[in-house]
């Protein structure tokens, strides 16, 4: 049940803040990746976030967690945290911040396409036009915008691939949300996913570095975990209880906008005319689909990490 009308402005503010903080995640990642590997950077992000979010995993509503629930949570968390983020930040290491941020904007489009194919959700002409426009935008960026030498097709493709991986996580969470609260689910997913990530990273890459990492990199890692993961988890999940998904979900599109602006202004990246046109097509299509697609509206309620 939604809260009173007086809480709606705060709900919109919380969703907008979460969207803006998500948009800064790749910027902090770029700073940290100058000094440490992709796997260790992702691990530190979640290790910083875990202490702040873990208290929310407590079962306050009394809903019973069955063995099947835990199995589904573990599977979804594996796809949602170690697999998605390792692929995503590997892509970031190979491409520019602005390219990576704009490619994230393809998520609502991928969700709508999956809904039409897998869930048989009917899409109207506007939604199909948005799908075509977003795909065109992604192609413009990936195939025609590497003049600055900082971006690459391989990196852009990995970012998009991570969005397809996120589908498994979102669909798994959708079933669990029928029985459990979003905040509790997010916290437990983070704990399980981080545990898997820790084992995988140490086994494949060794212990994460402690010495030889600059203060600037540590600050970026802490901000990535505390602001871009822990704070967004709390802000987004609370905000989505105060406002309709079709309205609050629009703010998820701040992520590609903020990320690309940070790349251009702080890292002095160049998108070029082709890149800006492609970005506009992606973001515009995402806004249309996040307000019109039933699956996209449901998915924005599950977005938290």
Can you characterise this structure?
The structure is a single chain. The protein is an all-alpha fold. It has one domain. 74% of the residues lie in helices and 0% in strands. It contains 13 helices and no strands. The protein has helices spanning 8-33, 38-53, 67-94, 97-104, 107-117, 125-144, 153-176, 182-205, 215-239, 245-248, 254-265, 272-292, 294-300. The chain starts with 7 loop residues before the first helix and ends in a 5-residue tail after the last helix. The mean pLDDT is 85.
What is the helix/strand order?
A: HHHHHHHHHHHHH
Give the biggest beta sheet.
none
End-to-end separation: 24 Å
Oligomer: single chain
The total count of strands amounts to 0
| Share of residues in helices | over 70%
Mean pLDDT: 85
Q: Secondary-structure map with pairings?
A:
Layout: H1 8-33, H2 38-53, H3 67-94, H4 97-104, H5 107-117, H6 125-144, H7 153-176, H8 182-205, H9 215-239, H10 245-248, H11 254-265, H12 272-292, H13 294-300
The gist of it:
The protein has 305 residues and is mainly alpha-helical. It has helices spanning 8-33, 38-53, 67-94, 97-104, 107-117, 125-144, 153-176, 182-205, 215-239, 245-248, 254-265, 272-292, 294-300.
